[in-house]
Amino acid sequence: ILLSEGDLEIRPLFYSSWLFITPRDYKLDGLSNTISGERTIDVELIRNQPLILQEESTNIRKEINELLSLSQNSEFNKRMQVANSLLAIENVQDGLGCAIVADTFRVYLDEKKVNIYRLAADTRALTCLAYLKGRKITPQETEVMKAFCSILALKNEKPE
């Protein structure tokens, strides 16, 4: 079933930062910095890496394109294109290239198979809840969203 944006209600939940992930044996430690115990890397330094990118039609790809064109140079090395972030992660874990994903996808990463770098950029990824127009959100779903947003609020990651 194909849906259009007009079929969906979209509710922003929170902003998260961007991660750059590489296969475990593909280290960029010489290019990265450690800030507060976390490895970070500049967007400019990932342009030449073999990128696995989400399809052009996805919202996350639009945000990644914007992120990659923050500087004067909008060229980057695209290794392959996949349907979504989960497939990008799977391909990185299989050693086929590197990917940019929102921090919210960290739960899907096998940290034994990947290196994780936080992108040193002023932009953040917006995570939204999308559901069919006219669908009622159940009280249980509402409670889960409230709890989730409360946890994020404690981390100061609320939407603007």
Write up this protein.
The protein has 160 residues and is an alpha/beta fold. It has helices spanning 59-68, 85-93, 139-154, and strands spanning 8-16, 18-23, 33-35, 38-42, 51-54, 78-82, 99-102, 114-120, 125-132. A five-stranded mixed beta sheet has the order 3-4-8-2-7, with helices on one face. A two-stranded antiparallel sheet has the order 1-9. Helix 1 links the parallel strand 5 (51-54) and strand 6 (78-82). The longest helix has 16 residues, at 139-154. The model is unreliable at 156-160 (pLDDT under 50).
Can you describe this structure in just a few lines?
This protein is α/β, with parallel strands linked by helices. It contains three helices and nine strands; from the N terminus they run βββββαβαβββα. Helices cover 22% and strands 32% of the residues.
Could you give the topology of this structure?
Elements: E1 8-16, E2 18-23, E3 33-35, E4 38-42, E5 51-54, H1 59-68, E6 78-82, H2 85-93, E7 99-102, E8 114-120, E9 125-132, H3 139-154
